[in-house]
Amino acid sequence: MILILFSSVFIIPVLTGWGKIMETIWGILFQGISGKILSGILGITLIWTIISFFTPLNMSVEVPSILLGLFFFFKKKLYKEFHQFSKKDFVVLSVSSLAVIFAGSFYPYILDHFGYYIPTLKWLTEYGLVRGISNTDLTLGQMSLWHVFQAGFSNFSDPFLRINTVLLIIYTLYTVEKRNWIHLCFLPLLLLFSQSPSPDLPVIIFSLIILNEIMAGQKNTTFLFAFSIFVFAIKPTMIWLPVLTFLSSLLIFKANFRYLISGIIILLLFFIKNLWTFGYPIFPLALGDVGIFWKPNPEVLKISSQFAIMKTYDMQYTYEEIQKFSTADYIRNWFSLDGIKSKINILFVLSLVIFSVFAWVKKRKLITLICISLLMKSILVLIFSAQYRFFIDVFFVIFFVIFHEYFDRKKAVFVFSVLSIFFISILSFPEFIQSYLPSFRVGTFMTGFEKEQIYKPSTYQYEKFDTYKVGNFKFNVSHHYPYSFDTPLPSITPAYLFDNVKTGIFPQLSDKNDIKKGFIWKKMTSEEQVEAQKVINTIENIDK
Length: 544
Prior knowledge:
Layout: H1 2-26, H2 33-51, H3 59-75, H4 87-104, H5 111-126, H6 145-153, H7 163-178, H8 183-190, H9 200-215, H10 221-234, H11 240-251, H12 260-277, H13 298-312, H14 319-323, H15 327-335, H16 340-362, H17 365-384, H18 388-403, H19 409-428, H20 431-436, E1 465-470, E2 473-478, H21 494-503, E3 505-509, E4 519-523, H22 526-543
Antiparallel strand pairs: 1-2, 3-4
């Protein structure tokens, strides 16, 4: 906890200073400290993304960025803006920040933390954005902008990778500064995302902030649209947000099309980044083929697509069984999955129906546009992969729009207090959720409280791996463990290695002497097939 506090106290002024720099370029997102911080997050992430094409996001990038942010923080005397809060505001800010830091000190338990987040950060800090990295593991082709942001601070400022905890403190700061107390009601649930650099947390928080600004009549359409594109670039399932900002700017604020320029520039950077790492403009869709030679093998993409369909049904049906579903089966089986997933699916559809009726009754243009945007996003999710993690943000948005005028400070503080105790209790004593909600799988990976958390956040170490070589690619595989979160680079997860061998291909270095020049896939020669099969046999024997 103490080290997270130090990181937060250090990083927030840096972002505030960067926000002041960005305000001279982009203009003011909105007045106040939180507006500067969000501008700083946007600016420094975009700059680091461009830098990462050419160099790793290591100490030589982090230190100058920190010094520049701190220079403007003190030169412009931005610290004075932190004195504006009343005693009551300071108490709310302090107590909620303490809850956030405590929750953030627990062990990570989201499986993507080990299979996707940490490997991505390792590649970014050691090599930067690597061309065709998706050929070593398809999930690495995402390289979310949020992981670029986390990677930039991971060498010195935030070595325990708790940037989401820092973001929750920033969100609390925004809530108190804007005195829009309904956000306090969301904070306890968001504590569950504080231990890992999950992109789900920033997109939920940023979308609620942008939505709040739009509903408050914020007229800086240029920055609102640019920031909404930034949110989309972090996680493309947030497509509804740029659609909303575009429609509201056009139909409500009557802005001209020049406001789109900044957002289009960010969108182009997003497409270029994806083309570089994945081979197509939007991960994981094999759409917009421009003939890049390092794009993934079609069979690998096919396997990924089939897996996404099975995940829609919580892996309770095989792909072959799903292919035999009638239209009625698709719907009925999705609503009747075993465990908590079916309840979430039912609640999702019910929430959309209720919100549609709410929008029709209110007959307000902005609410109608929000409803249209959410429905469009929901239809796309249902078509591609209807997993609850892809539409969880919809619940937050609907609750916010319906109840944002209901919660004053007193009501919000009460809800925050009760829910915080509940969710922190789950983190501290996970046996409860493991016993009563066994179908909530991530709950089985929670470990409870340890006294060492008071000083530093809990992290895992494994550091067991084996080294192999197929063709010109020498790689590491974790020893008797399915993920490569602390395996030295270059590494491959066993599952992806098996998929490659199954399809008769294997990743190879474009230049055997330089990993930075990226990866391609190639069909294995008979000699390479023998090498790969030896690797498979060795791993299978270890697992036995």
